[in-house]
Amino acid sequence: MSLDPAYRVTVLDMQPIDPPLGGGRMRLLGLYHGLGLPTCYIGSYDWPGEPHREIRLSPTLNEIDVPLGERHFKASARALQGVRGRTVIDTTFARFARLSPRFVTAAAEAVGEADVVVFSHPWVYPVVQDHLDEENQLIVYDAQNVEGYLRFTLFDDDGGPGTRIVREVVAQEASLVRSAHLVLTCSEEDAHLFHQLYDLPFEKIRTVPNGAFVQDIGFLSPDEKQEARSRLGLDQGTTALFLGSDYEPNLEAVRFITQSLAAQVPEVRFLIAGGVGARWLAESGEAAVPENVCVPGSFSPQEKRAYLGAADMAINPVEKGSGSSIKMFEFMAAGLPIVTTSEGARGIMPGSDEPFRVCPRSEMAVQLRALSDSPEERSRLSAHARRLAETHYSWEALSGKLGRLLHRHRSRFIQKKPRFSVLVPTYERPAELIRLMDHLFRQNFPDFEVIVVDQSSRACGDRLRPFGLDVFYLHESVRGAVRARNTAAFYARGAILAFTDDDCQPAADWLEKADAYFDDPGVAGLEGLIRTDRLGHPGYRSVSNENFRGIGFMTANLFLRLEVFNTLGGFDERFDNPHFREDTDLGWRALEHGQIPFGFDVQVFHPAHPRDEQRESRTERDRFFEKDALLLKKHPHRFKQLFLAEPANKTAAYWEHFLRGSRKYHVDIPNFYHAYMEKILSGRADQP
């Protein structure tokens, strides 16, 4: 999808991007290098002595760094004395920005030329606030952390100078959150923190995770890995890598590795690379380095790739912080098996295959020892981690995705947001998709947009234009219906999401009838009636929810408020490949946020599909029941009702795949289900 280059983007922060060392700079380069829109970055240096510079980082990203004034650094140094030596040049930036007039002028001029203004941290916002045009400029807060929360954990000193800084940060962030049209978060956890701290509506939030330049981080063959190990002198034993910048949560993790973990697993060599290693050495000295720990310190981008290539495993024992840990995405891109805390895995949706081991610090030694002893398990996790990085956490893809989001919201800026966003995933059904578009064209309720995510081998977007609908069409190569629905919702502007399938035929009054239900603010969503044909025919798979209401929440005819959908973090992508029960899981979670009535008058026709189509065959569909185990794990109390409501599918094939899913998702199946299936499969007429 090509974007209109007329929209100009200005990104503001007070650090340089190049060289991209540390998580903040890597996110800036990763997200903004390939928006597809002309992008100007205005930054500075948080240390004195650097010159003014302008460099081209990509065909569309230009970086301009304006040095801060000498008086600014002196004022910041005085503020530093009261907060136990922590860096304050960023958190006090607005307080002293008047002492850097050249930076203020450059930032204001860049804002004046922009159609989209992005604040990468809240620091610069108070400086240019009066220059913003909220009615004509799209204002975006790209929140690398929830700074108010993070700075409280790092600075608060019960009313002292640190508390003053925390209050300033909270006030700045709260003001920016109120003004921003979009707030980008690195993780769902941060989205909930923003909502709790600042009462930010989830409707304004989009999660744009961190990532890695996956194409630049090689996935080495065993021979190539051995060569990399030899170059770094790591021929013997198993090596576990920890990367990190000079950042307090990273430093605390290094203390854990060196003071506890290394002694518990003496057979594993720990490699601590990055600025955090240099900081720890400066604090502790060479004598404190355990025998099985190597601390090379800071690195160049080339050296970092060498460490990633040479390591056998990676470890991320961080327990504090906000945002997400960029090192995780680099570990995954390198195909490293990872042992991490849950905090270290923040912001990462694991997908349908386990990409890493998550455990508390107290169990890390056991997990590392098990991986060290099992090359097969390391190989399995390696493949899953690399695949997840390629499909979900590649900067190359994430930057383009953000560019489309900014372009879409800016191009529709003066238009009223639609009531409904109709979301349609499609795969190799061009004729059925055209038929669906015809039914949408005939809707007697015009206040809607359509978002189509097409994962077919060939794009068919041009065939949708004659209908004259407000259609956003996206063709992508990564497969998965669950992913497609989440992608569609990411771009949605409507207050209510309307889900249907590419082979469905909504009634002409589908949206009109649905609209009336949402006049009740207590309604979180709506199930509509799915009609079908050939019910009971053994040669066809029919789809209907007429006798299944309140249980399945099928996406052939399902509505959910955007606010609720974003609150829930969307569909759980573990239910993808094969996609099944993701809608049931979403519906059950949504019930915690309001009512979901059943609308018999909100109708969609879903034609039956012949079983001789491979994707509709019983053999293929039986595989889907592995997801029942995951559904049981997440909703043990609700699952029993669903299980008993579908007696027809309780076959030997069902039980085979259900058990396979229990092993895959680490689910303990209660005795009730074993007893039920034993009785059914034994051929007894009376069911439990």
Could you write a compact summary of the structure shown?
The chain has 688 residues and is of the alpha/beta class.
Write the layout of secondary structure elements.
Elements: E1 9-12, H1 23-32, E2 39-43, E3 53-56, E4 61-65, H2 70-80, H3 93-96, H4 101-112, E5 116-119, H5 125-128, E6 138-143, H6 147-155, H7 161-179, E7 182-185, H8 188-198, E8 205-207, H9 222-231, E9 238-243, H10 248-264, E10 268-273, H11 275-284, E11 293-297, H12 301-310, E12 313-316, H13 326-333, E13 338-340, E14 357-358, H14 364-372, H15 375-392, H16 395-411, E15 420-426, H17 430-441, E16 448-454, E17 471-475, H18 481-491, E18 496-499, E19 505-506, H19 510-517, E20 525-531, E21 540-541, E22 558-561, H20 562-568, H21 582-590, E23 598-605, E24 609-610, H22 618-622, H23 626-634, H24 636-645, H25 652-664, H26 671-681
Parallel strand pairs: 1-2, 1-5, 2-4, 5-6, 6-7, 7-8, 9-10, 9-12, 10-11, 12-13, 13-14, 15-16, 15-18, 16-17, 20-23
Antiparallel strand pairs: 3-4, 18-22, 19-23, 20-22, 21-24
Helix pairs in contact: 1-16, 6-7, 9-12, 10-11, 13-15, 23-24, 23-25
